[in-house]
Amino acid sequence: MKSKYIVGIVIIVVFVIFAIINLSKSLTPYVSFEEAKKSHSVVQVKGQRVDGSERFDVEHKVFTFRMVDENGEEFEVVYNGVKPANLEQATEIVAIGKFENGRFEAEQLLVKCPSKYQAEGAES
């Protein structure tokens, strides 16, 4: 009977450790671009798109644009995927990824567009 309890406790402990490890991997802090340059892990940077800086390589499906963070630092963001549909209306963009090869390599782009949160008929 005691061995069943020990096995049960060991299984619970293993699952708790597994959950903690996976949770810590999914937490990505917001940092400035300067801090992203120093970090070797996945981080989130937020800022505004620089108008007219977008380029999309159709053959390789690589979207590139320039972004300005809250400290006024401008940097290039490279995203392996298609351009988000509502990028032009975005008030803020969050890029999740790492600084590599002299630019920010984004794994994911989150576009914050205020229009979907405004009441119908409200002025922008």
Q: Output the number of helix runs.
A: 2
The CATH architecture name reads Beta Barrel
Number of domains: 1
* Biggest sheet overview: 5 strands, mixed, barrel
Rg from C-alpha positions?
Answer: 20 Å
The poorly predicted ranges are: none
Strand elements, count: 6
Which percent range describes the beta-strand content? 35-45%
Assign a percent range to the helix content: 25-40%
Relevant CATH superfamily: Nucleic acid-binding proteins
Overall mean confidence score, pLDDT = 83
**First and last CA, distance:** 68 Å
The CATH class turns out to be Mainly Beta
Shape: elongated
Strand order of the largest sheet: 1-3-4-6-5
CATH topology: the name is: OB fold (Dihydrolipoamide Acetyltransferase, E2P)
Structural class by sheet pairing and helices? alpha+beta
- H/E element string? HHEEEEEE
